[in-house]
Prior knowledge:
Shape: globular
CATH class: Mainly Beta
Structural class: mainly beta
CATH topology: Thrombin, subunit H
Amino acid sequence: MFAAEYAPAARPFRRSKRARLELETPAEQSGMARTLCKVVDLSEHGCRLLTFSSMDRNQPIWLNLPGLGMIAAMVVWADDLVAGCVFASPLSADAFNALVSRHGLIH
């Protein structure tokens, strides 16, 4: 038997700040299936969704965001009815701020 020391890993680096939201929006998967989902976490580079149907990792989707229209995204992780997505093109700071000011949760 031997002993070892460890140090907890630092939190992963985030490219942009995140905001908690409550925004229901339709999502279209592969141009075929449409489902309603809720955006619960948003950054300029992606979002976390609560869904009513399961999504697969590496699945392309389209999100219809208010004031922005259809936004292309890729599912980077999925666990039951929760999924993390990265946008094909980051949101502008103005678009991000508009969504947060209208749909953000302030605590």
